[in-house]
Amino acid sequence: MTDSNIHQQVLARAIKDAAFRQELLSNPKAVLAREFNVQMAENMTIRVLEDTSTTFTLVLPPQETATLELSDMDLEAVAGGVPGPTYNGCNNNTKSCRINC
């Protein structure tokens, strides 16, 4: 079962079952382990938030994912700044090589 499937099942049940919803809010690790056989690492935190008519929740990705950028050196390499390998004296970055090699 995928994380997405579990997520959908948890949401569907929490909408229909008030006791399940309360327990999920108070002890999500125990509920996920018991009901869906999902085991989390001890150091993993699960936070269940409840939207209300006056609350809207946005979930952001981890910061390292959101800010991942290539360095200037990496950008130069992917932009053709680093010559490719040479085969039989032919540099693969030249127009003649792509035609004649």
What does this structure look like?
The protein is mainly alpha-helical and 101 residues long. Helices cover 49% and strands 4% of the residues. The chain contains 6 helices and 2 strands, in the order H-H-H-H-H-E-E-H. The protein has helices at 3-16, 18-26, 28-36, 63-66, 72-78, 95-100; strands at residues 86-87, 90-91. A two-stranded antiparallel sheet has the order 1-2. A hairpin with a 2-residue loop joins strand 1 (86-87) and strand 2. It is elongated. The protein starts with a helix and ends with a helix.
Largest sheet: 2 strands, antiparallel
What is the number of helical segments per DSSP (H or I, 4+ residues)?
6
Q: Order of strands across the widest beta sheet?
A: 1-2
How much is the radius of gyration in Å?
A: 26 Å
Anisotropy-based shape = elongated
Distance between termini? 49 Å
Q: How helix-rich are the residues, as a percent range?
A: 40-55%
Overall mean pLDDT stands at 80
Beta-strand residue percentage: under 5%
Uncertain spans, ≥5 residues at pLDDT below 50?
Answer: none
Number of DSSP-assigned strands: 2
